[in-house]
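Hello forum,

I keep getting stuck at the same step: I have a sequence, I want structure tokens, and every attempt I make locally crashes halfway through. Rather than fight my setup again tonight, could one of you with a working pipeline run this one for me? It's a single chain of 96 residues.
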Amino acid sequence: MSKSVKLILSIIFYAIGMISYLFPIVGETLDIVWAPISGILMFSMYGGAKGVMSGMFSALEEASPGMDLIPTFTLVWLWTYVWQKDKNEVEEIEIS
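Reply #2:
Ran it on my machine without issues. Output:
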């Protein structure tokens, strides 16, 4: 999956997590349903140790009341493709 597709999906998944704010009383129940789904999606997007850790964090964040404002999917995307970019490029050069 390309990094641009992952970014688009990250934004969509963040929006899905924010839907609970549209339903003040039922919203937290929706978060309980969405929490494990978001964890599984995060793992499937990034895999490996990063996917496990970010998937667990995503599930916990979605299940916690009031924490939906954290854009976890987008932050993991930024961490992977922007903040860690130089490190990944150096590793690729050393392997070659």
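Residues 27-46 form the longest helix (20 residues). If your local run keeps crashing, start a new thread with the error log.
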